[in-house]
TrEMBL record, chain B:
This is Sugar ABC transporter ATP-binding protein. CDD domains: ABC_Carb_Monos_I, ABC_Carb_Monos_II. It comes from Rubellimicrobium aerolatum. Keywords: ATP-binding, Cell membrane, Membrane, Nucleotide-binding, Repeat, Sugar transport, Translocase, Transport. SUPFAM superfamilies: P-loop containing nucleoside triphosphate hydrolases. Residues 23-259, 271-513 form the ABC transporter domain. One of its GO terms (molecular function) is ATP binding.
Automatic annotation (TrEMBL), chain C:
It is a multi-pass membrane protein. InterPro entries: ABC_transp_permease. Keywords: Cell inner membrane, Cell membrane, Membrane, Transmembrane, Transmembrane helix, Transport. The complex is composed of two ATP-binding proteins (LsrA), two transmembrane proteins (LsrC and LsrD) and a solute-binding protein (LsrB). The chain crosses the membrane at residues 29-50, 70-92, 104-124, 131-153, 173-196, 228-249, 306-326. It comes from Rubellimicrobium aerolatum. This is Autoinducer 2 import system permease protein LsrD. It is found in: Cell membrane. Part of the ABC transporter complex LsrABCD involved in autoinducer 2 (AI-2) import. Probably responsible for the translocation of the substrate across the membrane. The keyword Cell membrane applies.
UniProtKB/TrEMBL annotation, chain D:
Its main location: membrane. Keywords: Cell membrane, Membrane, Transmembrane, Transmembrane helix. It is a multi-pass membrane protein. The lineage of its organism: Bacteria, Pseudomonadati, Pseudomonadota, Alphaproteobacteria, Rhodobacterales. It is found in: Cell membrane. The keyword DNA-binding does not apply. This is ABC transporter permease. The keyword Cell membrane applies. The chain crosses the membrane at residues 41-59, 66-84, 90-112, 119-137, 157-180, 187-204, 210-229, 250-278, 290-308. It comes from Rubellimicrobium aerolatum.
Amino acid sequence: QDDPVRIALVVKSLGNGFFEAANRGAEEAAAELGNVEIIYTGPTSTTAEGQIEVINSLIAQGVDAIAISANDPDAVVPALQKAMQRGITVISWDSGVAPEGRQMHLSPSSNELIGQTIIKLAADQLPEGGQVAVLSATSTSTNQNIWIEEMNKVMGDYPNIEVVATVYGDDLADKSYRETQGLIQTYPDLDAIIAPTSVGIVAAAQAVADAGKIGQINVTGLGLPSEMAGAVESGASKSFAIWNPVDLGYATTMIAYHLAQGDATAEPGAAIPMGRIGTATLDDNNEAAMAVPFTYDASNIEEFKSVF
Amino acid sequence: MNDQSLARAAVLRPPAAGPNPVLRLSGIGKSFPGVRALQDVELALYPGQVTALIGENGAGKSTLVKILTGIYQPDAGRIELDGAPVRFPTALSATQAGVTAIHQETVLFDDLTVVENIFLGHQPRNRFGLLDWGRMTREAKAILDRIGARIDPHVTLRELGIASKHLVAIARALSVEARVVVMDEPTAALSQTEIEELYELVDRLKADGKAILFISHKFDEIFRIADRYTVFRDGQMVEAGLIADVTEDHLVERMVGRSVDTIFPKRHAAIGPEVLAVEGYSHPTEFEDISFTLRRGEILGFYGLVGAGRSEFMQALFGVTKPSRGTVRIGRQAVAIRSPAEAIGHGIVYVPEDRGKQGAIRPLPIVQNVTLPSLGRTSRKGFLRMAEEFALARRYTERLDLRASALDQPVGNLSGGNQQKVVIAKWLATQPRVIILDEPTKGIDVGSKAAVHEFMSELAAEGLSVIMVSSEIPEILGMSDRVIVMREGRLAAEFPREGLTPEMLVRAAAGYGRAA
Amino acid sequence: MSLAEGTRPRHIPDRLSGRMGHALRSWELLLLLVGVAIFVANSLLSPYFLSPWNLSDATFNFTEKAMIAFAVAMLIIAGEIDLSVAAIIALASTLMGLALQHGAGTPVLVGVGLLTGLLCGLVNGTLVTRLGLPSIVATIGTMSLYRGISYIVLGDEAFNGYPASFALFGQGYAWWVISWELVIFAVLAVAFGVLLHRTNFGRQVYVIGNNDTAAAFSGVRVQRVKMILFLLTGLMSGVAAVCLTSRLGSTRPSIAQGWELEIVTMVVLGGVSILGGSGSILGVVLAALVMGMVTFGLGLLNVPGIVMSVFIGALLIGVIAIPRLIRLARTGRAA
Amino acid sequence: MSTFLKSREAMLALALVALVALVESRFRGFAAPGNLAAVFNDTSVLMILALGQMLVIMTKCIDLSVAANLALTGMTVALVNAAAPGVPVVALIALAVGLGLLLGAFNGLLVWLLDIPPIVVTLGTLTIYRGVVFVISGGEWINSFEMSPAFTALPRMVILGLPVLSWIALLVVLLVAVLVRLTPLGRAILAVGGNAHAAVYTGISVGFTRFMAFVISGGLAGLCGYLWVSRYAVAYTDVAVGFELDVVAACVIGGVSIAGGIGTVGGAVLGALFLGVIKNALPVAGISPFWQLAISGAAIIVAVALNARAERTKGRIILKSAEHAA
Ligand SMILES: Nc1ncnc2c1ncn2[C@@H]1O[C@H](COP(=O)(O)OP(=O)(O)OP(=O)(O)O)[C@@H](O)[C@H]1O
Ligand SMILES: Nc1ncnc2c1ncn2[C@@H]1O[C@H](COP(=O)(O)OP(=O)(O)OP(=O)(O)O)[C@@H](O)[C@H]1O
Ligand SMILES: [Mg+2]
Ligand SMILES: [Mg+2]
């Protein structure tokens, strides 16, 4: 029996439902591939230093591949470069790493699509136009910033919609809650809150419900069906979107496996198989997008809330 | 031996036609690391009588008080209350049994009010089990009135002077329904009128049938209020009996164990030129307008009641606190002393009164304590040289006849007197010009005391100038070439050695006679 | 009595017991044993542990924290504490980033980092020694303040693009597997060991921690010594900021978040009394190694970081509590 | 002194009013009763924890484990609620408080019987308690849909215009005020911190008093565990991470002396409200959230500096002429 191919799934922090779901996908892929061992790991809090310690111990164990969702795109680069020097396949997924620190990056979806989706989710409920505010995660998380940027690029398509503020909940439930209260206070005419973060959107929905603003303020953005089921039911959130994290973990594992086995190479234009999801095609930056975000609302939430 | 059994018989024999003792201690022993504070002690207290407990510093009187009030547990012996054996595992249990005390050190809470200080630990409660502040305030006022203390019960203790604090401690002791009242040097900090009021109070307590244990170094008051006496020497009871049967001389003899004159061997030394002159030293709250001079080879005594501000003034002179006004000259040169380091630089050193807090660094070895202010001399370019340190420490500790098992022993393990020797050695090692000794023999045993005194004269003979702050009249009279008396932060009098009597000192300190 | 005997001084020996006896009962020995046990356990549990490169990588887990821990140990021995050290790293790193944007080269960057550390130490020292604030609350305050300034400067941005020569401090190797950071750590360990245990200054630190009133009465310039210690702690935070920034190659305001408690843990585990007055640099070095090995060993077993911290928390309480529990059981009463 | 203490609180209250007025002057509606009530409600948990911490600090100890205690009790009740939605909320609250008391007692015992410095004890239990949260939850979140409606509804139920959360905070304020002012334990807590040596002479057990302070602080943290988790309708490992420092800061701003023996309920409440107002005002005032940390740091420094000035020990008063001037 050969030694198993060991693939480390390094997440931003342990104890986050999104990543737990991704891990399930990774295990699914491992089972499908056979002889693959998944090491699901990450720091306890979302810090780059913590991830570096984790990476160092993975290098020490001589894993075959590291697939990381980075807390800081730059800080982990030296450690990942060291990993690559020691012959370890390194890819990033979800939250990316600077190109010199990885062989390729798998986005859950393309940033443009996400940026367009989150504003569309809000706008669809506001045919007359109105005020929206953004509740983001930590100020330092890469993807939220990119998505908001992408969103701003297409704001021209929604002339009646005004983005009045962007605040940061730091991916902490209480801070997000308080920031939402602040928004409600400051903008009495607010119509929607876009929270492109799974922690923020839940807290925002809770704050809106507690303020008795259901029906006046629609909370939308990116969230997990299991966490948002209550908010959809209460009406605090009409709809929200997310890519499927199970699929993301699955696809990441597949790619890491093929790269580590030498079945595929990460270079611009390469097409790397992702099992049941299809094929990832790398762009000039060695980046690929998995799929379009999927929208959840009252019609389908029941079905998904127990999945992830 | 014989003394012991005689004394025991005296304790156990009931007074002529008197009642049985309320409280009786037998075979009490207590040791601290390195010190045997009490050994096989007997004591009996009778209702309606005042028993005086006398003995030199460190004889073990306060230790006995602490055993009686549940703060220390005796190593041996038994306590009987009305003939039944009792134990006092905590201070509260002693209070509840009706034993209450005014302790020697005021152990109170500076940030709490007078009312609270009086009742803390045994506050009256209302029917819901909550504190009854109304009753507390009323009772506090009543007790304060009873002892003639004019103190607002609502002020915090921090705002009171030492005498008022002492009155609060007395009020606290009276706030419980006590059968036995212990007073450990209650008059030490009081002025004459307050002392008179205290005597009246003691008389009233006697009339109420309370048993009183009264600890004092002042023989006049012992003969004024006590019915019985017990003498301690070095942790042992040496004699007990009726005051009416004895004279003062006899008590002193029993207390010290030898004739008194030998204690203070002040030798005559040639007194040289002026080395220190202080002019108009003042502080906003502590002292005012202190001026004096000190000459080479002179021992200058500073006498005063406790709290007269001598320590505070000395600390200002040593640079610990800042004076608001005044000048110092050393030799001919005017100097400004802004920190102890500067004072040491000018050759002025201070052996503090509070040995535990300000003098010794208890967990550190003897050698490190001794060399601390002299590190500049024992080190090279800031790097320690252990050999030099040991040499310096040995030179001075051996000269002071320190009793220690090794120089790397922590100072905290030594007996009080030996700790004091370490502190003195520390300062002598700096080779000062002026040494200020603040209560140099406070709390140290007879032998060490004599050694310290002998050493002081030796130093003076060698040309060192000594300022000695002391509250002990015999020490002042025995050692000083000249005596300055302070009262309430001011100079009250200055006396030459010749013709000085205890009378004159007390009058000046208390503010009756106006001398000089 | 002594009067009679006083004429013939008796000899007092320098030392009572040999140093061996003392060393055998010491905290350092206990730590060393714990360390060896962990080392052995790690080698048995993970086949990857005993590799020079892996051990070398593992040193990065503690070197930067330990540099600060040396200075904090001295501060704690003197009876003070500094909880703002991690925030100083953040601020120093941020200002280095600003300098970088203005075109500073490596020497200037290092200078900026160290100076910022010193300046922060000066502020802490001033609050404590001049204004008389309790250091624990004063530095809780400056902790928020320093990191807060980093957030104000950086917001959601990051500084990166540090020059290649700057990478030396956190990523360079002096020889084979010996990183420059490890060299800096070792040099500082020796320097602090000498400073604390072999100089007048170190002696004064102990004296102050045992009894600062008596120290002042003995002519020790207590406030000045404390100020120097705060400056030193700031400076070491600056050094750690240089190393960490170099290692990460980027600066974000959340850098070194939560390190202050890890550093205090390291110091206390090293046998330094949190009440001041005792402790040694050797103890801190050993504690750093123990903590580094625990985290690395558990990391190799892919144990989550939070479970490691449980282990360290238990170690912290355990090593102090167990001897006391034994004594309690033996004598039947509290110490 | 007592009038002086009052004036210190008055000063803080004044600063608070000034702060509210400042925000109101630029952003209408902040000082509206409804919004102030919301701010109060939002500060409730901090206030409750600060009161517990105050008791501990007054005995000259410190409890750094409160936030971890909160997380652990919160997670425990959330897990129980998710597993057995039928268990009545009252029982869960009792469980939270009981568990909190136990965790506090563990700290207290180590301090009392083994005489380990409180900062070391609670630094250790801080990491241990939070680690246990991770272990019992397996790192998973408990989300609102897994909680029973009654569980999440209680704190936000409105009675007489205020949510239950606020009422609970007010009740705790009252109880702690009674404890401090009217019970022997409360006075013992002040005495032990003020002068531990003298406390022994008055028959107070220093160790036991400290133990009780830790127990109460733990119990209040346990209560907050339930309140936090039900209010935000989510439980996870990092709940309230770092909150212990906010709690200590609230005490310090409120004039509780870290050296023990000094502190008032009013002060701690005002200290908590001060931080609460800042936290709530920043988003409203549109000040970048990045400023918040620096502002609260500066507030802490200013507050302790003011308190330290007031507390600075003056020399003894010996001179008769100085006695009345003082
Ligand atoms: N807690 C303690 N630890 C060690 N030694 C102690 C302690 N308390 C008292 N002693 C020692 O016990 C002896 C008796 O002390 P105690 O205070 O009872 O004397 P005293 O008779 O009250 O003296 P004074 O007249 O000075 O008040 C002294 O040698 C003292 O140093
Ligand atoms: N106002 C006070 N409050 C509390 N304790 C006091 C006060 N005054 C004096 N004491 C204590 O009483 C003891 C003796 O005090 P102090 O040093 O004032 O006496 P002294 O040396 O006899 O007089 P002097 O002030 O003249 O030096 C010391 O332990 C001191 O701490
Ligand atoms: Mg005594
Ligand atoms: Mg004095």
